[in-house]
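Notes, p. 3: input format for complexes.
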Amino acid sequence: MSQAHRNPLPGVPAVESPFFDDIFVPGNCSAEELRIAKDLRDNGYAVFDFPDADIQAKAERIKSALHGRYPWTQWRSGKADMRVQDAWKTNDDVRSVAINAGVLELLSKLYGRQAWPFQTLNFPVGTEQHFHTDSIHFSSVPERFMCGVWLALEDIGPEQGPLEYYAGSHRWPIYTNEHVGFVPRDGVNDQSTYHEVWRRLVERTGVRREQFHARKGQALIWASNLLHGGMPHLDKSKTRWSQVTHYYFEDCAYYTPMHSDPFRGLVAFRHLTDLRTLRPVINSFSNNRIPPAFLKASRAGFEPFARLRRSYNRFRRKLARRSGGERGME
Ligand SMILES: O=C(O)CCC(=O)C(=O)O
Ligand SMILES: [Fe+2]
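Output follows (330 residues plus 2-oxoglutaric acid):
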């Protein structure tokens, strides 16, 4: 964008900006980037080929390296917690997918700020997760500077619990505690607090549900406020290997709205590591950091609830191990 067309809303992701047509002009982006930007703007997701010549072999290496880390027998006979979070810590292929330079460049163009990855999840089977927004788990100030990139590590068809999503739902407001009337001090929150409103919105708006039947090596970006989840995994003789990398963008404050109550002094700030640099990331916005004293105070206000939630989550995991399957995670 030239000076004459300075973006007056740098705190809105470029793809979601009312000034989209001023930002995405030939010369600033390729035809393929423009296609992806328009898909993301209109539908809240965009499919693309993962830009790594070695991705087929990398996918095979990731699958064989992680295979032993899942409770397969339990899953086949019922349900089980089949996620490995942050495998990038021990697996260079997982990290190289997360920090792929082409993806970082693409996301940075789409959002108008430098993208950085903060988390990986590797799933060998369908998650069967209730549809949800990532916005209630991972949000930012300014809002919407977060997205997921989901990569198929094998071909995935309708029987393998494919990813599902509601096209266009990303344009809805970000509904959080104050909208549904939940006060974090009153109890331990999880995303099931919002299931009813999401279900009712889907019914009321008639928004279209779609599934991603992916080819190995294809990837999908979703906007943070897109409703998405996992379809039932119908054929348990098959797997559904995928990697999700979650990205934030620079110069934001990063927090979990679901556990926050800012006007009563609770902000569940996230203290994250940038997977590119392996360094902690500072919470800031408009080029001003959040004062450390405020981070500390909101943490102190939050700690009793965080403790309660940690023990609740331990209890849920224990139950899940016994009776199989944990739902409702991000
Ligand atoms: O892979 C899936 O089924 C959904 C994953 C998801 O919701 C996430 O990583 O945010
Ligand atoms: Fe999610």
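The domain at 3-323 is CATH 2.60.120.620 (Jelly Rolls).
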